[in-house]
Specification:
The chain is α/β, with parallel strands linked by helices. The chain has 9 helices and 17 strands. The structure holds NADP nicotinamide-adenine-dinucleotide phosphate (NAP). NADP nicotinamide-adenine-dinucleotide phosphate binds next to helix 2, helix 3 and helix 9. This is Enoyl reductase (ER) domain-containing protein.
Length: about 350
């Protein structure tokens, strides 16, 4: 008899109006089954999900079928599992490039098992450094790549310059803090709690502050020398304050605008004319743009830096698909203390 298993899934149930609503936006589903012995097509693999990442951009994909996503056709369909970057383990293979037991990194559905008919985009993670697998969803995954590509391609950083980084205790921000310090910059960093501020200081930030209890504008004014680079993870009013603080020929790396993801009335930036008067370069980017050209550099360099302790990282583990929605809600309230990783199977 074939071993038929329940294949738990996390489904997109309702388009949120503002913040996600627990148990309403997403629904855990146990009605799907999978025959783990059923024949696979040539080239296909059967995988078991080990862990899935929670990233802020998942909210941008929940705008419903009529919204135009920033990547075409990238929004979720109602009643279908959400998906994101994850790590799966091959349990059966009809593809010579993938062996049983291989750990793969790619975009996967939030479900326990998947049949991947065309696994060519999956990367086999060798993990020669024997790092925790969760790191491959944080600093060694998409968010770390974001920091690495964005900094390398768009910062034009020079030793002695000053950079301001928001959401600096998050995965992207923390990596940028460390890249900037390694290059000899003065780092000004903001985060949303005193604990996060202490963490950012431990990473080497020269000035770190809690933007909820101290005015960003005042902190930047008090520097007395302006900033040369602003790494923007938040957008809104803080972006406006950073534009005012930028020096002539300053650069803004527009990585994210998390303060705007759950609001219906986006903040209107009032001082954009300074882009002219100060000759500011504003560079918006999406990590996917650089993956094809720069991902091998990343995998050659970053895991070693992490293993040597030169890039520090933290993940916050949550267990089971059912924990994913709360983890996502926490991300937008600043209640996450590190990159949330949803662990489905610790044994793999
Ligand atoms: N361009 C790209 O390709 C790309 C790729 C990945 C990520 N990103 C962006 O990079 C940023 C950081 O991502 P991450 O993965 O490292 O996430 P993260 O920083 O680990 O988690 C999100 C953090 O954002 C802060 N936050 C939440 N709501 C906020 C609000 N209303 N105003 C200000 N801050 C708020 C919170 O930190 P505090 O407690 O410090 O407020 C929260 O912990 C996000 O904007 C994300 O969308 C962009």
């Amino acid at each position: 008899m074939s071993p038929v298993a329940v294949n738990k899934r996390l489904l997109f149930n309702e388009v949120p109006d503002g913040y996600l609503e627990l148990g309403v936006t997403l629904k855990l589903d146990s009605t799907s089954q999978i025959d783990l012995d059923a024949p696979l097509e040539e080239g296909a693999i059967l995988v078991k999900t080990k862990a899935l990442a929670i990233d802020p951009y998942l909210r941008n994909r929940m705008q419903g079928p009529s919204a135009k996503g920033y990547i075409p056709n990238f929004s979720y369909s109602l009643g279908e599992p959400i998906s994101n970057f994850g790590i799966v383990v091959v349990i059966r293979s009809e593809n010579p490039a993938f062996q049983v037991g291989d750990h793969l990194y790619d975009h996967f559905k939030f479900q326990e098992y998947s049949i991947i008919k065309d696994p060519t985009t999956c990367r086999v993670l060798k993990n020669e450094e024997k790092l925790p697998w969760s790191a491959y969803l944080g600093t060694l995954g998409m968010p770390g790549q974001t920091a690495y590509f964005g900094w390398k391609l768009y910062s034009y950083a020079k030793s002695g310059e000053t950079v301001f980084i928001t959401t600096a205790a998050g995965t992207v921000g923390a990596a940028v803090v460390q890249l900037a310090k390694a290059q000899g910059l003065k780092v000004i960093a903001s985060a949303g709690s005193d604990e996060k501020v202490d963490y950012v200081k431990s990473l080497g930030a020269d000035v770190a502050f809690n933007y909820k209890t101290k005015s960003t504008r005042e902190v930047l004014d008090e520097l007395g020398h302006g900033i040369d680079i602003y790494w923007d993870n938040v957008g809104g009013e803080i972006l406006e304050a950073a534009i005012d603080a930028l020096n002539i020929f300053g650069r803004i790396i527009m990585c994210g605008a998390i303060s705007q993801y759950n609001t219906k009335t986006p903040y209107g930036i009032k001082n954009l004319f300074h882009a002219v008067t100060k000759r500011i370069t504003i560079h918006g980017f999406v990590v996917a743009d650089a993956i094809a050209t720069h991902k091998e550099d990343f995998y050659a360099e970053f895991p070693k830096l992490v293993a040597e302790g030169k890039i520090q990282h933290k993940e916050q583990l949550h267990y089971g698909l059912g924990s994913a929605e709360q983890a996502l809600i926490d991300t937008f309230k600043g209640d996450n203390i590190a990159k949330p990783v949803i662990v489905l199977d610790e044994s793999l």
